[in-house]
Amino acid sequence: MTAKIAFRSSFAAFTVLALVIAIALAIGSASGRENRQERGAAAADELLPPEAFASIADPAERSAAVFTEAGKVFTHPRCVNCHAEGDRPLQGDDSHPHQPWARRGADGFGAPGMRCATCHTDENFDPAGVPGAPNWHLAPTEMTWQGKSIGEICDQVKDPARNGDRTLQDLIHHAGEDPLVTWAWSPGRDRQPAPGTQTVFRDLIQAWIDDGAVCPP
Amino acid sequence: MKFILHVNGTPRQIDVASNTPLLWVLRDELRLTGTKFGCGVAQCGACTVHLDGEPARSCAIPVKAVKQRNVETIEGVSGSVAEAVQNSWQELQVPQCGYCQSGQIMTAIALLREIPRPTDSDIDSAMTGNACRCATYVRIRKAIHDASSSIEGK
Known about the structure:
The complex is a heterodimer of chains A (217) and B (154). Chain A is mainly α and 217 residues long.
């Protein structure tokens, strides 16, 4: 009888222990998954500075690598949404077509009667969820980046015929100081900002140019 | 915070928080209730007014952003284009429930001032941001063409 009770007690203790271990493993696994997800998100948000590429000895190779890093900004929804192809801007972190149905118009500032400034002012207006920055408009069609590779975007931004007749030095200014570009890092509400900071982005463009403005393949 | 807004040609002093939407100022402070609250997020166009003649969604514009621009509402909009639009709207009995119509009319006037002979595509591009739950879109487009013809005929 005593032996039976002892057996039952140790069986119950074993069952409890097994349950505790199973729960601990499940929590550990979920936590590891979350950590991995957090690390992945951090990597996507990260923008490495030019110094991170100093170990690449060949300037041309380094230049292309630096532009590829800057490409995280060029291809980010905050930039692509208004460097969109076609007649409509995009919006949201998933780059869906702009709602309401805004059109590019002849000058990129919208159609008569439905200009960008009909809703967008010089700054974000979070109570209405409407983003804003000075000069809010769509990039011209020759400057669209939507669906393009980093190499194609690079060729495009170097080409005065497709970059608004800008010199390479102008590009540094545009990347580092244009208020509309600045907006990408302070987009308001729950919009995901462009990776890194505008200063690092500007430094990357500067470094890319200093090493010969070589485009990745 | 005190502001002087130029509304329908008259300077109006108000004392509100600088982030107050222009729509609330017009309706609650100045009692100009012809401009309607629809969605509050610049999706429907019911709150459309003119700022220096350009259409603007007053729900999405903080009062501090208005600055020296002249605010024109449905109560004050005037001139030959506004008259033609008003006449065509009445002639063709455009409104059904009417709630969105002041916004529709403000956008239509802005369009006709810029493009006196708009195509269907011009009209669709301009009016796309003005929703109408009664779906009076066909009559709206017809009335804009009608107003355009009457302006041309003068």
